[in-house]
Amino acid sequence: MYRHASHLRRGLLATAATLVLATAAPALAAQPLLQAEHQTYDLKAQPLAAALAEVARISGRPIVVSTSLARGKTAPPLKGRFTPDQAYAALLSGSGLKLVTVGNNLVVQPADTGVAAPITGESPAGDAEQVAEVVVTGTRIRGAAPAGAQVITISREDIEASGYATTQQIVQALPQNFGGGANEATTMLSTRSGAGSNTGMGSGVNLRGLGTTSTLVLLNGERPAMGGISGTFADLSLIPASAVQRIEVLPDGASALYGSDAVAGVVNVVFRDRFEGAETRLRYATADGDFDEVQAGQLFGKAWDSGHLILAYEYHAKGRLAAADRDYAREDLRPFGGGDYRANYSTPGTIVAGGRTFAIPAGQNGVGLTPSQLLPDQINRRDARLNTDLLPRQRRQSMFVAAEQALDGKTTLKAQLLAADRRFNSRVMNVSQSAVTVPVANPFYVDPIGTRAPVRVQYDFSQDLGPMALLGHVRAYNGVVGLTRTLGDWSASADVGFGQQREYSRYDNYVNTYRLGLALADTNPATAYNLFGDARSTNPATIESIRGWSANSGLWRVWTSSLRADGPLFDLPAGTVKLAIGGEWRAERFKYGSLTYRTTAAPAPSSSLYPGARKILAAYAEVRVPLVAETMGVTGVRNLAVSLAGRVERYSDFGTTATPKAGLEWSPFQGLSLRGSYGRSFRAPSFADQRIAVGYVLYQPIRLTDPKSPTGATNVVALVGNTADIGPERARTWTVGFDLRPTWAPRARLETTLFKVDYRDRIGSINADLLNVLVNRALYTSLIENSPSAARLSELYASPFFSNPSNIPASAIGAIVDSRNTNLASVVETGLDFDARYAPEMGPYRLELGLSGSYLFNRDQKVTPDAPKTDVVGTVGNPVDLRLRGRAILSRGSWDTAAFVNFYNHYTNQTVAPAKTIKAWTTVDLQLGYRFGASTGPLDGVRLALTASNVFDKDPPFADLRVNISGVGFDSEAASPVGRLIGVQATKSW
Predict the structure, then answer these.
(1) Among 10, 78, 521, 790, which has the minimal tally of Cβ within 10 Å of its Cβ?
(2) Where in the numbering of this chain does the Secretin/TonB short N-terminal domain appear (predicted)?
(3) DSSP category for residue 157
């Protein structure tokens, strides 16, 4: 549908892209998708307290105001782009009130008070209250920033400026996020970091490259249902980007506050649940007609004296991106200087007999084929990648509903629901091809060596059946209902929630080997299967009879409930000590089943016996203590505060965990703030990690090469699958950083953070290197049990998990090799995050410049406790050492222009010998926008934007990669194959 866009539409888009380039080129610079100093406000005249609360919500900058001071005052309309302090000042203009900075807080006082701010941080009126109870990711205390931590905020303004249509695109642009793991681009191209479990073609988050299972994703602070086999990641592709207010990213361990998975960090998606009015959004984008994207969204928001309601709907669709449309997406990479990874399967096929190969000639139908026509010692190969898709066709509908109603002056009822439905379809490679035995009775049988014995034929059935198709359906619901009660200066809340994500996927055009065997044994030339000619040389009805398929379904459910409270404890000379406490209960369950029609006469069901419901009970506490305030006059200390947090969790399946965290922030003088944190985090083992069942756990005698054996080999019992005592993965995290806002350049800012993650007890196995275990004994000492006792062997041989196809007796076993998944690997990663920005005064113009990035010093990895550490930074499957994202935004009046630069450093392809360098990749994104004013009549409130991602159409750098059973010429974990994507978007505010 979308690939056949008209030439006129393409011409218009190309012309528009030229305009973007011409307009935006002078503004090229660098800045990340971080919250800008300036935000766009469009507020009507309203009560002062409500207006101040709205600015606090949008900016994330808390403010304290006395109820008596704000009562009866009306704020003027606020429209334009301002810093938080400028916005507050504009609202207070003419009110007889002023802003005073107390510590890190803004306090409203009478303009004529003449009284210095009190050291307690309270206003002279004595009844101060925090207007916006903003809770920032990384702390449970309202109105406070997490001490010692840096929170990256992608604001609504940043989302609009980026030109991205989906939530996953927005998050993937962060330098701290690695593209490996579960996302639609890695499906069928990688199995690392949970990519192989992504049955629903969703998209997760992989901060620091530590895996999608090591990043916690929250929706308005609540855990959602999970996606993938056994719930390996939170699926961002289901979240409507048009309903997102901001995305807060804490790139630091935070299990002390949030529990499992918060090892690399936390990503909290905050919705526009305070939106008022209506907004309509339409978008179309195309990559030269090879790939198309359509988006439509509608928001409605209504507020009244005691509550508010928002309804949001979004439709997003994109067409498939065919591998044939990208030259580098192929198996035969010799034209690019790479290898030839084509398999020995083609149509016509290749006969294997007597240890030799005989290629079947093309251009004939297999009838009357003679041995003399065969091509001895040759193999027919076909590039199977060319008939597949790099990106699937996707259709997604999402709805978000949120409501809040005050029941009385102190109690508020809240509810929210996110529902999403996504369907996908993709042509994928068949990873289960094998040679087929043709009996002598087959009417098309050819005997190349004259033995009159069955022959094996390497045949590509995709030319008969069509390419293998993966199609599926994902449906998810996440809802929360809660009550909040004001208890003096304290606030308490109780919530209950439920989440469910159901995934269904089906592979079509498999070969049903049972039906194929019958067709090959058929002696009737009219109905027998013919493997000796060109494609479709067989009767169409016979071809249809062997068509098989496989269907899978997974269901993740989560039930949650929580009680939490926070407020002041007591006052110190530097301010108020605040405490947050809470308790949580959660139950999780995953079910999986399949129905296959590949090897049997009729579809055969099967179920996977995953563990039952897991129940978690947790309690946490966090305290923030201000030690020194500016008003105390302490030399060398302008402000000093510490935070302490701890959490204890009881898991029904593996026991108890306890995780502490401490944070410190110190400002020696105005303009400089130093911070640091230390904490412990963990990741609970998944249901797949804990699955113990026949067919999933295997004890099998095999013969391994052994240089220390007189015979050169030793019989061992290999233990494969999971261990019964798998425990949580554990980590220690440290951060040290500073925020610099020089007084001589108040519109400049620099933030840096040094971090270290010591991640141990990671769940993994040595199964991939099982055949070389005895060759590398020193590497795997702890996993080898030499000369096991007769009792130990007797126990293994009697186990229901035991299988002995080679009939090796227990008396011949010399060792036991444990290649099961267990807590054995470790990773130590250190690096530096940074963000520099500058917004100079330019009269009627507003310009913002900046640069952010992440630099990794090392990533030392050990596959077992005995193994030497290996630094894998900048290698395939791991993050590069340097990643940058820059931004320049220039605006005046109704016009705005944004330019982004994305840099991904060069790295090493260690999967080939000798290792090769994959070049660095730099792309540029541009956007030109115009907002119509009131004088334009029906266009009032309309903003038109023209976007161009990868505007110079830079191909991904060539990578000579062997992936799964195939090959491809680019790294899907590091680069997008889409190319230049030009889009037009219209947004109407009502």
Answers:
(1) 790
(2) 61-111
(3) H
Residue 845 CB neighbour total at 10 angstroms: 12
Q: Any bridge partners for residue 480, and if so which?
A: 416, 497
Residue 647 has which token pair? Answer: 């959490």
Q: Label residue 842 exposed, middle or buried (CB < 10 Å: 0-12, 13-18, 19+).
A: exposed
Would you state the pLDDT for residue 25? 32
**Residues counted in the chain:** 990
Could you report the per-residue pLDDT of 160-200, keeping only the tens digit for each?
Answer: 999 899 999 999 999 999 988 888 888 778 777 777 788 89
Q: Is 326 helix (H, G, I), strand (E, B) or coil?
A: coil
What is the rounded distance in angstroms from the CA atom of residue 645 to the CA atom of residue 578? 12
- Tally Cβ neighbours within 10 Å of residue 627: 18
pLDDT above 70 (res 984): yes
Closest Cα partner for 226 from 499, 562, 613, 497? 499
Residue 269 identity (one-letter amino acid): V
How far is it between the farthest Cα atoms of the chain? Answer: 110
The bridge status of strand 105-110 relative to strand 63-66 is parallel
- Residue 101: phi and psi, rounded to 5, are -90, 125
Q: Alpha-carbon distance 859 to 39, whole Å?
A: 37
* Residues with Cβ within 8 Å of residue 120, at least 6 apart in sequence: 571, 575, 576
> Could you say which DSSP state residue 451 is in?
-
Residue 961: what residue type? L
Mean residue pLDDT across the chain:
88
Alpha carbon separation from 246 to 65, 833, 959 (Å, rounded)? 25, 20, 35
Question: Which residues in 306-344 are b (16+ Cβ under 10 Å) and which e?
Answer: eebbbbbbbebbbbbbbbbbbebbbbbbeeeebeebbbb
Closest CA to 832 of 247, 175, 300: 175
- Name every residue whose Cβ is closer than 8 Å to that of residue 898 and which is 6 or more positions away in sequence: 24, 27, 161, 162, 163, 887, 888, 889, 890, 926, 927, 929
Q: Which residue has the tokens 């649940």?
A: 273
Instruction: Give the start-to-end residue ranges of the domains of the chain.
Output: 39-130
| Highest CATH level, class, for 39-130 | alpha beta
What DSSP letter does each residue of 638-699 carry, written as one string?
SEEEEEEEEEEEEETTTEEEEEEEEEEEEEEETTEEEEEEEEEEEEPPPTTTT---BTTBEE
Q: How confident is the model at residue 9 (pLDDT cuts 50, 70, 90)?
A: very low
Amino acid, res. 323 = A
Distance of alpha carbon 859 from alpha carbon 839, whole angstroms:
35
R_g over Cα of the chain = 31
8 A C-beta contact, residue 52 and residue 70? yes
The C-alpha angle with vertex 945 and arms to 940 and 947, in degrees rounded to 5, equals 175
User: DSSP 3-state assignment of 234?
Assistant: coil
Angle subtended at Cα 484 by Cα 481 and Cα 488, rounded to the nearest 5 degrees? 175
Q: What three-state secondary structure class fits 339?
A: coil
Do 242 and 312 form a contact (C-beta atoms < 8 A)? yes
314 contacts 293 by C-beta, under 8 angstroms: no
Relative to beta strand 468-487, strand 455-458 is unpaired
Contact 683, 695 (CB under 8 A): no
Residue 409 burial (CB count, 10 A): 8
Tens digits of residue pLDDT in 362-373: 999 999 999 999
Instruction: Check residue 573 and report its DSSP letter.
Output: T
What's the average model confidence in pLDDT over 699-703? 94
DSSP structural state of residue 860: E
Amino acid residing at 848: E
Q: Specify the DSSP element, H or E, that contains 499.
A: strand 490-511
DSSP 779-818: TSGGGEEES--HHHHHHHHTSTTB--TT---GGG--EEEE
Under DSSP, the state recorded for 894 is T
